Automatic annotation (TrEMBL):
GO biological process: fatty acid biosynthetic process
Organism: Roseovarius indicus
Stated name of the protein: Peroxisomal trans-2-enoyl-CoA reductase
Entries under Gene3D superfamilies matching the protein: NAD(P)-binding Rossmann-like Domain
Membrane-spanning residues: none
Keyword line: Fatty acid biosynthesis, Fatty acid metabolism, Lipid biosynthesis, Lipid metabolism, NADP, Oxidoreductase, Peroxisome, Phosphoprotein
Location, primary (coarse class): other
GO molecular function annotation: trans-2-enoyl-CoA reductase (NADPH) activity
The protein's annotated pathway: Lipid metabolism
Signal sequence coordinates: none
UniProt keyword ATP-binding present: no
Protein EC: 1.3.1.38
Compartments in which it is found: Peroxisome
Length: 270
């Protein structure tokens, strides 16, 4: 990436593009989620952010308070079905939903033989079932605005990954669900896509084990570079914009070619 303000460097969308539009972003207090909120509010959108911890959500609110759109947040565990449905409904009634970004997610790295059934269920709940719940709850609001859904996935999701059997299973499920709903809801004008970022250095990838992987991840990326939060945010906004009008049912990998190169999927194969 060139020097300068990272968002400015990758910004291609028009100021005021999303004035009067509404969005829900999960995992809005940190990393990629905060970056997406910042771009959407910067483009004039009214955004509700979800996450379990209030403190990072409040930090996101502080970061965007002078921007053209607005940001409200709600503490919500997306694995709690009733709480998630209620949060989506409240956001829909407050500002409408032109865009739903299912970004909250994560997992632990472990070989399949070390994943307990509870560990499996926790990852499937967070990365698959919660996305179904949120998307279904948002349907009436999306329909009335002919809105869009962006589901955060992983680079290489289609070819499997060492140490991530649970997460790849969940995210492959999300891809199948995304394509199925893209078909079911096309007549309503609702579009759904998945984004597969490569390596994004956020707090989620900052523990010792993840840092140890970083050099290997970058070496396995043909362009030998990280994906920036701002690049993911700009692409998310693009997919919700009129320029994305015919894009639906896709997995778009924003990963410096990782999914066609050596890839991130063999990292951890010792
Ligand atoms: C393709 C390569 C690039 C990949 C790049 C990806 C990057 C990112 O995703 S960045 C975001 C990273 N952030 C996170 O991953 C944080 C989110 N993760 C979690 O919250 C947890 O991992 C969770 C999904 C398991 C949910 O946690 P929670 O509900 O609190 O679960 P528990 O701690 O109660 O554990 C439930 C169950 O899971 C077992 N477990 C947890 N960690 C591990 C581990 N490291 N190894 C093996 N098993 C683990 C835990 O032991 C529990 O099972 P039981 O012991 O059977 O009760
Ligand atoms: N960083 C990377 O290299 C890549 C990341 N991704 C994916 O992008 C997404 C964002 O990752 P990133 O920003 O890097 O990581 P972070 O760990 O910073 O973000 C994860 C966010 O999800 C929220 N979250 C987690 N569990 C729950 C829950 N049960 N209910 C509500 N919110 C929850 C967290 O907030 P809180 O803890 O407060 O609930 C946090 O804000 C994830 O789905 C991740 O797997 C994909 C490819 C690469």
């Amino acid at each position: 990436m060139k020097d300068g303000d990272p968002q400015e460097t990758v910004s291609v969308l028009k100021d005021g593009l999303f004035k009067g539009k509404g969005a829900v972003v999960s995992g809005a207090g940190t990393g990629i989620g905060r970056g997406i909120v910042t771009r959407l509010v910067g483009l004039g959108m009214d955004v509700t952010g979800l996450g379990r911890r209030e403190e990072p959500l409040a930090e996101t609110a502080e970061a965007v308070k002078e921007m053209p759109g607005s940001f409200r947040y709600q503490s919500c565990n997306v694995r709690d079905i009733e709480a998630l449905e209620a949060a989506i409904e409240e956001a829909g009634e407050t500002h409408g939903i032109d865009l739903l970004v299912n970004n909250a997610g994560g997992q632990f790295f472990a070989p399949a033989t070390e994943i307990s059934r509870r560990g499996w269920d926790a990852v499937i709940d967070l990365n698959l079932s919660a996305i179904f719940t949120a998307t279904k709850a948002a349907y009436p609001y999306l329909k009335s605005r002919r809105g869009a859904v962006v589901n955060m996935s992983l680079s290489g999701v289609e070819r499997g990954s060492m140490g991530l059997a649970h997460s790849i299973a969940a995210r492959s499920g999300v891809l199948g669900m995304t394509r199925s709903l893209a078909l079911e809801w096309a007549g309503d004008g609702i579009r759904l896509n998945c984004l597969g970022p490569g390596t994004v250095v956020t707090s989620g990838l900052s523990d010792e084990a993840a840092r140890a992987l970083l050099d290997g991840l970058l070496a396995a990326t043909p362009m030998h570079c990280e994906t920036s939060v701002e690049e993911v945010a700009e692409l998310t906004a693009f997919l919700a914009s009129p320029a994305g009008r015919l894009m639906t049912g896709q997995l778009i990998q924003i990963d410096g070619g990782a999914h066609i190169g050596a890839g991130l999927h063999m990292i951890g194969a010792a």
